[in-house]
Amino acid sequence: MSKAARERSARERLAAERKRQAARDKQRRLLTIVLGAVVAVAAIVAIAVVVIDQQGKRDQTATAYTGPQAPLTREADGSIVMAKAGVTGPTLEIFEDFQCPACKQFEESTGKTVKELAAEGKVKVVYRPFHLFGEQRDPIKGNSLRSAAAALCVPADKWLSYHDALFKFQPQEGSEGFASEDLVAWGKDVGVTDAGFEKCVVDQQKKPQVDAMTKYALETRKVTGTPTVFLDGRKLENELGDPAALTKAVNDAQSGR
């Protein structure tokens, strides 16, 4: 083979090797792109699974109240009456704000006694939630309004369970809480199935009634703090945190009728 032929053959082999190397490089690039795409898709799927999983989990789940109670009815002014049939007094009126820490303490210490007295037919209970913190700054102002408005969206027969859930999950003072999605979820937890419930809560459709109940509490009844509890019009003081004292007060009022 001549020298020229050998050089041509070498050039051809080199060109062929470069072509094969270029093909291998192209394959590696394609493989890298494909693997990168697979990893990206896997990451997106993983994130979606985590988000869905987190959405399916809630730290706060309300439960239906199953203890002693009397039948519940909602009055035209938004208040909730708990009394056995035929019981018209003595009347225990409870003015409360669901954002109020002292109201939560009252519920924890004496709420069970209030329910038991009503279940025994010894007292007519009137719950009067309102927006005490209307002049405060957010988040306390918003927490107070959202919870009061949401409570008015709940049917009377589920109200006691919802009422207790609001105090159980009350946000700490100064902390954002009572988010609309939670207020809706707690209602569903305790069995609220009304088609318009969610919209009622999210749109705060009961705000005008909350405003009216607040005006009644502050201007008509001269309530200056919560909880404020009246027994046949007499403001209770020391009895609020003492179940035995409250029971005695109710029994005395009953015997004096």
Note down, in words, how this protein is organized.
With 257 residues, the protein is an alpha+beta fold. Helices cover 55% and strands 9% of the residues. It has 8 helices and 6 strands; from the N terminus they run H-E-E-E-H-E-H-H-H-H-H-E-E-H. It has helices spanning 3-56, 101-119, 140-151, 156-168, 180-189, 197-202, 207-220, 243-255, and strands at 72-74, 80-82, 91-96, 124-129, 228-231, 234-235. A 6-stranded mixed β-sheet has the order 1-2-4-3-5-6, with helices on both faces. Strand 3, helix 2 and strand 4 (124-129) form a beta-alpha-beta unit. Helix 2 (101-119) packs across helix 8 (243-255).
Major β-sheet strand ordering: 1-2-4-3-5-6
Q: What's the mean pLDDT score?
A: 87
Derived structural class: alpha+beta
User: Measured on Cα atoms, how large is the radius of gyration?
Assistant: 33 Å
Q: Percent of residues in beta strands?
A: 5-15%
Cα end-to-end separation: 133 Å
Taking the sheet with the most strands, its summary is: 6 strands, mixed
Into which percent range does the helicity of residues fall? Answer: 40-55%
The helix/strand order is HEEEHEHHHHHEEH
The shape is elongated
